[in-house]
Specification:
The structure is a single chain. The chain is of the alpha+beta class. It has one domain: NADH Oxidase. Helix content is 44%, strand content 14%. The chain starts with 7 loop residues before the first helix and ends with a helix. Flavin mononucleotide binds next to strand 3. Belongs to the nitroreductase family. GO terms for molecular function: oxidoreductase activity. This is Nitroreductase family protein.
């Protein structure tokens, strides 16, 4: 994936949802993992990193997913379509996730222990809060993933047009894994629209 990387603001301003991909234009596994790596630079509450990226890239698996995504052709035509899952925060999951920050020397061990307890107490058995967190984390990762794709000269399209229950079952998701969105990524073909106009900032912002 040797392509020129435009500035981040350019990537944000030029990104649009890709409808047409070059079929049969595969991405190397290393490129797919690099995109995932960049997506995981998104923040999560407590640094929970409560996500999983199912990179659906083989023709057979893409066909299976396309059938559960209202037949949307881009699911198969893209080089890879991610099933972006957010996880309900799991009790006791934080200590190993915070350990690298402690080992790096900037997070005191006692603070890491306090944060781990606080997270467990915060989510507890609150299903709504846990699901909200799953959706927040996966959504942030999705945004980072799409911008990373754009910055690497690739196109991407987020999709909610899929049967979440059927996808969870067909791809063996655990009970606490929410398939938040699909994100198709690949080389763009002709015929895609530019980014659609947005509402004026002043009409959506409230300056207090
Ligand atoms: C959560 C979400 C779900 C979407 N689902 C679909 C979808 O299932 N199929 C599709 O073609 N586009 C889908 N889109 C793309 C939107 O239609 C698109 O982002 C919007 O029209 C703005 O266009 P732009 O991103 O090109 O500026 C989705 C976008 C988001 C953020």
């Amino acid at each position: 994936m040797q392509i020129q990387i435009p500035a981040l603001v350019d990537a944000i301003e030029t990104r649009s949802s890709t409808n047409f991909f070059q079929p049969d234009s595969a991405l190397e596994d290393a490129a797919i993992l690099r995109l995932v790596e960049l997506a995981t630079r998104a923040p999560t509450a407590f640094n929970l990193q409560n996500w999983r990226f199912l990179a659906v890239r083989s023709p057979q698996e893409k066909a299976r997913l396309q059938a559960l995504a209202a037949g949307q052709a881009k699911v198969s035509e893209a080089a890879v379509t991610f099933i972006l899952c957010g996880l309900h925060p799991r009790q006791g999951s934080l200590p190993p996730l915070l350990a690298p920050s402690v080992e790096a020397g900037y997070m005191p061990a006692a603070l890491a222990a306090d944060l781990a307890s606080a997270a467990d107490a915060f989510y507890g058995d609150n299903l709504r809060l846990s699901r909200d967190e799953a959706i927040r984390s996966a959504s942030l990762a999705g945004a980072f993933l799409m911008i990373a794709a754009q910055a690497h000269g690739l196109g991407a399209c987020p999709m909610v047009g899929f049967d979440a229950d059927a996808v969870a079952q067909a791809f063996g998701l655990a009970q606490d894994e929410v398939p938040v969105m699909l994100v198709a990524v690949g080389r763009t073909a002709a015929g895609n629209w530019p980014q659609k106009p947005r509402l004026a900032p002043a009409s959506v912002a409230t300056l207090l």
